[in-house]
Amino acid sequence: MAFTAANGRTQTSLSDINITPLVDVVLVLLIIFMVTAPVLQSGIDVNVPNTRTVK
How many angstroms separate the CA atoms of 46 and 50, rounded? Predict the structure, then answer.
């Protein structure tokens, strides 16, 4: 997209993608995955109450 500057020259806008936020989000997701994967693999012991079935 081109535009005209105050001095009368035509310039093009800078439309590059900013990679820094993308890298930050990917690294946070990687850390979350690395922390939660061992917990999901080993599991967590939960004591549930025993019930009887009634006819």
Answer: 12
Residue 12 sits at φ, ψ, to 5 deg, of -105, 145
CA 53 from centre of chain: 45
Q: Are 3 and 15 in contact (CB under 8 A)?
A: no
Q: How far apart are CA 31 and CA 37, in angstroms?
A: 10
- Report d(CA 37, CA 43) in Å as an integer: 10
pLDDT in tens, 5-53: 667 777 776 667 788 999 999 999 999 999 998 888 877 788 988 888 8
Q: What is the pTM of this model?
A: 0.48
